[in-house]
Amino acid sequence: MPKLPAEAYAIIEGRHSDPFHYLGLHPEGGKSVVRAFLPEASDVEAVGEHGEVATLDRVHASGLFIGALPNGSKHYQLRAKFGDKLVEFEDAYRFPPILTDFDLYLLGEGTHQRLYDKLGAHPMRLEGIDGIGFVVLAPNARRVSVVGDFNFWDGRRHPMRVRGAGYWELFIPHAKSGDHYKFEIIGPHGHLLPLKSDPMAFASEVRPKTASIVFDEAHLPRPRPAPDGINALSAPMSIYEVHLGSWRRKNGDEWLTYRELAEQLPAYARDMGFTHLEFLPVSEHPFDGSWGYQPTGLYAPTSRFGTPEDFAALIDACHREGIGVLLDWVPGHFPDDPHGLGSFDGTALYEHANPLQGRHLDWGTLIYNYGRTEVTNFLVSNALFWLERYAIDGLRVDAVASMLYLDYSRPPGAWIPNQYGGRENIEAINFLRRFNTELFARFPQATTAAEESTAWPQVSRPVEFGGLGFGYKWNMGWMHDTLNYISKDPIHRKHHHGDILFGLHYAFSENFILPLSHDEVVHGKRSIFGRMPGDEWQRFANLRAYYSFMFGHPGKKLLFMGGEIAQSREWNHDQSLDWHLLEYKYHQGVQSLVRDLNRLYRAVPALHQMDCDQAGFEWLVTDDANRNVFAWLRKGFDEHARCLVVVNFSPNVYRNYRVPVPFAGKWKEVFNSDSAHYGGTNVGNIGEVQTVAGKAPELRLTIPPLAAIFLVPES
Question: At a CB cut-off of 8 Å and minimum separation 6, what does 425 contact?
Fold first, then answer.
């Protein structure tokens, strides 16, 4: 065998960073020399564009072949014998680069808004040949290879070339949509890493398998848009939060597919009067018990329920029913599964190297390095991807507090201050502002919502005014205070009167959503119904009063699935909701109540138009702690758009209860949570009540027990 240069051994040993420099066709001494590395091949020929054949000599036992094309041909195919099989194919190392210089410039700058158009696996046609272009970021790797169905999962067959600031690329001719693949990476110290899934994969295998799947997302059918203005501050927003794997099941305990969900869920949400569906994270994740909050494939809808086309069909079905779709999005952390982003190229690429910055102690997960250009570009592009490709209407960002604070859930001394000695994560703040700025610029009809559990200021205020730029913020304080109040026996509630009042001190400091989310019905907290005190009748009456209070309170609404049927037990992600409860009248009654509250909320402008404006609210009764009564006025844009809300959190009936109102005349009782239709006692005001003459208009009301009534002035 001839003496080979060092470059040849770099190919043979799988450590060449630019195999194109050696493999493929190269002019040498007036000849067109072809070099191919084909392990397991016994004989190899190069076939020129006019049919001329050149035998390639085996110059190394590992499978390195070299030969010259006659007549100086520039185009060729390879013909190789593997065992008794003769195969003719294109040489991956004869094709031009995939990324343009402009791509590399934007990638280096971190301003490429359509990362998903360039990175990952994309069907393409190069020099008249169909195949798949693969691109992946791994700046510290010594070598990256694509392995998959097209090369027997042999990392020696298709090493990639590195370009720009660490972007590895390779066009593999005749690879196709549906092929499974991963990346084989040798780290900076020469160690072989576990096979890595593609961070940009658009589809993945069903867990526990972890291979990425080539999918032509550019030709994904785009769902129809949601109704205009569905996310506006002045529009009604009532969100039904759903975990797709446990809303309903079939055949005992099987998941519904995206297509089956499309047939049932949007119609149910519309019938119940919800304006939006919010899905717990649908990004690919390995562990069912994480509920999607530990994603490994941010660009792939989970394969548990079907294909990307199937997921798009679900979104289309929601929009067809007039329902907006929000996705739970998790840019705050990611799991350390060996096939995922952790130590992706053998170094801390996506995460911080220092565990005091790069790991959440509570969750055992890794924290993105928001100071790294490539990381923030990856995350912002991902947010835009869901809106562009799937017509998603908004993103709810999980665990924002864990991103904002460097000392989040850390003991003293176990965190690293910022450059000014503070606890604020400046890089994360900048990332969130950029995310919101770019998202609203590209999709002005969309929205974002922050799950932010602290008093961080101006979460839902514009970036140009010093805010984080979110459309909405979850009101966690309201949720904690009011659940604490309603879980008390009525006899003790007078001592907790302030739990109801306190929320209005800050109710308009942000654009708030009032959340009764999945987090409140797990980990021993019981279901919302399970927290209600008293005997059976009182528990249901309490729940009806609480939901009514929520719908009368300023702020958009969010209810986790099962809450609308008074689910008795905690939510279990491995089981369907207890739909059989609807055989019982009290559970039916709660469902009817939620349906009617949603319809009322949408139909009465005063209940939604000024949800986020101080001018839309006025307290009328705040000081009746002994009787557990509250009353307030909601206001719409029109001066006569008014709604009186009176809530009685005691089991007593109050008659001739005086409440001042702004207009004399008849006030119609448009809702009463004590209606027999909902399982109540039918105490109320027989449909309407007339103001009493005096210095100021006043109503004398009959207030039912553990109930709320809504009244509007007769037009």
Answer: 370, 403, 404, 405, 406, 418
Is the pLDDT at 205 greater than 60, yes or no? yes
- What phi and psi, each to the nearest 5 degrees, are found at residue 336? -100, 25
> Which regions of 205-294 does DSSP assign to beta strands (E)?
212-213, 238-242, 249-250, 254-255, 276-279, 283-284
Residues 6 or more apart whose Cβ sits within 8 Å of residue 134: 120, 121, 146, 160, 169, 170, 171, 172, 181, 198
Q: Report the alpha-carbon distance of residue 121 to residue 283 in Å, rounded.
A: 17
Residues composing the chain? 715
| Pairwise CA distance, residues 573 & 352, whole Å | 32
**Is 200 in a helix, a strand, or coil?**
coil
677, two tokens: 């239709």
Domains of the chain: 6-94 (2.60.40.10), 101-219 (2.60.40.10), 613-713 (2.60.40.1180)
List, in sequence order, every residue forming a beta bridge with 88; answer none if it has no partner: 79
Query: Which residues have a Cβ under 8 Å from the Cβ of 85 and sit 6 or more positions away?
Result: none
Burial of 466 (0-12, 13-18, 19+ CB in 10 A): exposed
Nearest to residue 234, comparing CAs of 654, 554, 467? Answer: 554
467 near 452, Cβ under 8 Å? no
Which residues carry out catalysis? 398, 451
pLDDT in tens, 67-126: 888 776 778 899 999 888 888 889 999 999 999 999 998 888 888 878 999 999 999 999
Q: Could you give the C-alpha distances from 176 to 129, 133, 134, 306, in angstroms and in order?
A: 12, 10, 12, 19
Give whole-number Cα distances, 124 to 118, 167, 269, 349, 350, in Å.
11, 18, 40, 28, 28
Report the distance separating Cα 649 and Cα 672, nearest Å.
14
The verdict on whether omega for the bond into residue 208 sits within 30 degrees of 0, i.e. cis, is yes
Instruction: Report the distance separating Cα 288 and Cα 302, nearest Å.
Output: 11
CB neighbour list of residue 559: distance below 8 Å, 6 or more residues apart: 238, 239, 240, 241, 516, 547, 594
Determine how β-strand 617-624 pairs with β-strand 629-635: antiparallel
CA dist 146 → 62, 87, 622 (Å): 19, 20, 67
Q: Give dist(CA 576, CA 254) in Å, integer.
A: 9
DSSP label of 368 = B
Inform me whether the pLDDT recorded for 1 exceeds 70: no
Lookup result for tokens 């502002």: 433
Average pLDDT in the 371-382 region? 95
Written as one letter, the residue type at 436 is: N
CA distance 306 to 347: 33
Pairing between β-strand 53-60 and β-strand 43-48 as defined by DSSP bridges: antiparallel
Give the contacts of 327 (CB within 8 A, at least 6 positions apart): 278, 279, 281, 282, 386, 392, 394, 395, 396
d(CA 519, CA 479): 11
Among 35-39, 376-380, 584-588, 627-631, whose mean pLDDT is lowest?
35-39
pTM (2 d.p.): 0.94
Is residue 265 within 8 Å of residue 277, measured between CB atoms?
Answer: yes
Would you report the helix, strand and coil content of the chain in percent, each value rounded to 5?
Answer: 30, 30, 45
Give, as one character, the DSSP assignment of residue 502: G
Give the integer Cα–Cα distance in Å for 687 and 362.
53
pLDDT given for residue 228 in this prediction: 94
Strand partners of residue 137: 167
The Cα 691–Cα 706 span in angstroms is 24
Give the end-to-end CA distance of the chain in Å, rounded to a whole number.
99
